[in-house]
Every structure is written in C-alpha cells, then in structure tokens.
Amino acid sequence: MIVINNLGKDFDTGFSLKDINLVIETGEKIKIFGPNGAGKTTFLRILACLSKPSRGSFTIFGYPHTERIEILKRIGLTAPSGHFYELLTVYQNLEFYGKMYGLSRQELGERIKGLLKQFNLSEKENTKVNQLSKGMKQRLAIIKALLHDPPILLLDEPFSGLDLDSANSLKNYLNSLTDKTIITATHDFDWEEGEKNRIIIFDNGAVVFDGVWSEGGHSFKAFYKKVVGK
Predict the structure, then answer these.
(1) What is the pLDDT along the chain (230 residues), one digit of tens a residue?
(2) Is residue 87 exposed (0-12), middle (13-18) or buried (19+ Cβ within 10 Å)?
C-alpha cells in the first residue's frame, strides 16, 4: 500500500506539485494522464526516491519516504532516459543493476535470461546499449524495472518508442501481473478504452480527477479534454 499525505514539490521556475493526497491499495492498476509539464514525472520521481518532496510525506508498505533503501527494494521504475551505461552490453547493464539489488548470481542469471526472452531481446544480450534502437532501449528499461521482481512498478511513458506489436504485447503483459501495484504515466488514450482501472489526471501540478472512468457514450479522450479543458 502507498499512502500519500499533502505531498508537494516546488521549483525555481514557479511550477509546483500541489499537496497530493492519495491512497493506493496493493495490487491496484493506476493510469496517470495529463498534459506535458503537469507533474506526472515529478510525482513518479518522488515516489521512486529520486527527488525529495518540498513538503508532505508518503509511505510504501509502511516505510516512510525517508527510508530510501527499503523503498527502493520494493519498486521498479522506468524512465525515458533509461539510465544505462551505453558502452556496456545489455547483459552487463542488467547484471550491474541486479547486483545492486542483492540478487544471487544464479537467481540473477535466471531472471535476466527469462526477461530477455519475454521481451524478445535474447539475441541482443551481448550487444552494447548504444547500438540498440529506441524501442529496444525502452524494452530494456522495462526489464530493468522488473529485474528484482518488485511489488510496485512505476512506469513513465513505457510505450514511447515501441511499435504497435511491442506496445500491445507490453500492455498484455502488464495486465497479466495481477499481484503487482502498477502506476503508469502515459499519453496512450486508446489503452484506457474498454478498461475499468483507476485513473488519475494531473493538470498544472494538481490532481484534477481520481476515479474510474465510465464511457457514458463518450471516448476517454473526449472525457480527458473536458477535465483538463484542452
């Protein structure tokens, strides 16, 4: 469970994340939408302990946000940059991060092989990251997030750079992870069509909608535009 109380973040630019209050239950699948610069990435970075809040607090499985090591054991994050060592191979990058999470050599090897197969990157395990396409790097970022089998996934634009088949395959895979809490920031409006998951919409640093979208004769994109006024 994630409990967020009056969470805020101020920037010199004048933008601020405005006093977020949320309770996210274990196993929930949440999609976060919002215009560029609305605060989605800032929110995920704070939950991932990559950015300190200016005020407020949050707990993850009872651990306060100040206990960074305990929280990092329990989350997996994908970010647009990927945070890879470009001159190391795919396998070397995953091995490096897996050791950081304390995985045994045998367990780590099995996890890497299994996830590379799952995301169709087995043939690239000895390829340097700087030789991968954008879509391959995106799949690698997702593998890295899953490497230590965390109960919580924070996914920032996970479909960016993926072709249609890869994006659909990832959506199906994420939907199959019924035991994990998954929070996905995305602009993929089509993914929500027909879904009944919880939606959070950010605009100008604030949560302007939190609930389950019901079609009501309108597309989700039309509903979203009505909420944010754009």
Answers:
(1) 999 999 999 998 888 999 999 999 999 999 999 999 999 999 999 999 999 999 999 999 999 999 999 999 999 999 776 789 999 999 999 999 999 888 888 999 999 999 999 999 999 999 999 999 988 999 999 999 999 999 999 999 998 888 888 888 888 888 899 999 999 999 887 766 556 779 999 999 999 999 988 766 678 888 888 899 86
(2) exposed
Q: Is the dihedral of CA 174, 177, 183, 189 positive or negative?
A: positive
Find all residues with CB under 8 Å of 148, minimum gap 6, and list them. Answer: 73, 76, 98, 101, 103, 111
Residue 205: DSSP 8-state = T
Tell me the two tokens of residue 107.
């367990």
The count of C-alpha atoms lying within 13 angstroms of the C-alpha of 21, restricted to the half-sphere facing its C-beta, is 3
Q: Is the Cα torsion angle 210, 215, 220, 223 positive or negative in sign?
A: negative
Q: What is the pTM of this model?
A: 0.91
Question: What are the structure tokens assigned to 227, written together?
Answer: 């909420």
Compute the distance between CA of residue 82 and CA of residue 138 in angstroms, rounded to an integer.
Answer: 7
Amino acid at 113: K
